[in-house]
Amino acid sequence: MGILHILSEVCKNFGKKTSIAGLNHAVNSSSHLRRFAWLSIFFILMVFTFQTFLDTVLDFTSYPVLTSVNVTRKFNLPFPAVTICNLNRVQCTNLVYTQYQESEKMKLSPTNGTIDTVQLLNELVDLTKCLEQLCNKMNKFVGPVRVGPLGNYVDTTLLAIANLKCPVSIHIGRNCYYYKSIEEEAYKLNNTELYNRSIEAWNYQKCKAEEACSYKPQSDVPLQVRFEPLKFCEGKKFKTPSLFKGKFTKRHKNPLIMVEEAKFFNIFFKLPIYIQNAIGHQFESKLQYIHQYELTTKGFILSCQYRGESCLEKNASWTMINLPRYGNCYTLNSMNYPYNKLQSTSLTGAANGIELSFFVDQDNYIVSRLSEKAGVRIIIHEPGDFPLPDENGIDLQPGTATSIAIQKSDIIRLPKPYKSECFSNWSETPYENMTLDHPSYSIIVCQRICLQKWLKQKCGCTHPHIRQIGGFSKRKICNITPDAKENMDYKCFLEFIERFDNGSYNCQCNVACLEVDYSCQNTVSTWPSNEFWETLALELNLIDENLLPLPETLENKFRTDIQKNFVKTDIYYQTMSVKVIEQIPKYSYGTFIAGLGGSLSLYLGIAIIMIFEILEFIIDLFSRLGYYFVKGNKVKNHQHQKQKPNISSEILKY
């Protein structure tokens, strides 16, 4: 009895007793044709079963996910953070005024730091043409003056820095008839050095407060003021460019915005942080206007209301961040400030949201391609997220009211070993020590930190657009001026960016496990209306009620300036329903077992009990084969001993 006979006998016995469909029929069939047909069907289906079983196992080990989209109703929702930026990064009046202040400091204490700062400010004033803009306006300014922050802000600041009557113009933007003594004014300014110099100059020249203000009211028209010539602008003549020069010039080989922006960054980032903040649009203005009426200045953010209550207190709810392309930006309801008033809301609609209005101040925009657009950039994001105006911002147009209805969406992903391999926090990345100012993990911020790290390593400088992320604000920036001759920074920068875009550098950045997004539906209307602009002007102290009605020309001027400089927006929840986009594992333990059962039973009807039949078959087969090999060796040894000749007996025969 050979091995083949044993295999045949064991398989035949298993086929007669098994409950596996097809195999039982094949063995018990009396016809050879039927037996062949059933065996063929059985083996074909067994191949399909094995393939399905293997696919199920491989699919399970790849950790697949399913994506579910649900809409859940919430009783209340936390209000998002709102970041607001002016589309103009440097405010000309603040720049010229800061230049004047730093120049005065340099005269009092000429150190290397103050000298360098003044030199950089001079270069920035020349690049932005701020002084040219202000002086041109002042030279033309001999007619009606606008009361309030629409234009008088520019003029009075120049009056202050012009130093007209006294060595130090102590009445910086103040009302001449309000302060009776220079000591009181200097005390208001809270500047000891300026106070001492002012007292000395005041006593020496015996100046009067009325003379220090340097304007001459005309009695016939209350709103008309004629300013004396400004010594600060004397000798400065600037060309007024015409709209067309008769022919179009050839297009520059490099985008001019890149050239100007690179020059701007090379100057701006060398300035101290406090100077960078001082020359941007301020949350609230620290200057007052020179006029016979006492007025209060308005900063960038005019008003903020949440459910009818003011949320304009800077120290209560707002934080500031300086972004290279937008200057000073202000965030309401940031996680970085724990004392926020905006907690959560359970009601929808504009009456239960935030109402904001802004003073764009186009008269103080820098004269260059760096301010091609006018308006406000607004970003709605999670309180713990870093504001990304370039990616997520919405532009608000001057002279309009924009209603922004938001809906919250939660995107939930699964961590490793699932395919998304998401990160929950910065500790899962190699950049944890570089993200102290960014509490929430974000793949965009992570990629920017990675880019800066590689760029610093390869080129020895950092990208100017994103240097405020990851602690790179004090590092050398890359000179990305395209026109600079032999600019090694620019050459290295271009080569690096190309390779970075192609994926040559490894960034250990994955998507966030929890990502919160706010979808926005915007509607825009004209603001203020023809019937409301006068009421708005009175509310903002732009005009005096006793001067109404205004002459038609002045009325048109006011209306145009208001539409040019004011913006309003409402931000509110459109619905309390939250869209939840969630990844869930495709297989749990139960679904995996069910998948295996389905792959086994689909073609051959194999159940779990049949597995024990197969185990019994394997045990029988190996036991028979083992018995055969053991018994076969004993038989062979016995026969070999019988056939072996007895040498000793053969020898005796002889």
From TrEMBL:
GO MF annotation: an example: ligand-gated sodium channel activity
Keyword Cell inner membrane: no
Membrane in keyword set: yes
Alphabetical keyword list: Ion channel, Ion transport, Membrane, Sodium, Sodium channel, Sodium transport, Transmembrane, Transmembrane helix, Transport
Compartments, record wording: Membrane
UniProt main location, coarse: membrane
Pfam families: ASC
GO cellular component, one term: plasma membrane
Membrane topology: Multi-pass membrane protein
InterPro entries: ENaC
Family assignment from sequence similarity: Belongs to the amiloride-sensitive sodium channel (TC 1.A.6) family.
Name the UniProt record assigns to this protein: (salmon louse) hypothetical protein
Organism: Lepeophtheirus salmonis
The organism's taxonomic lineage, starting at the top: Eukaryota, Metazoa, Ecdysozoa, Arthropoda, Crustacea
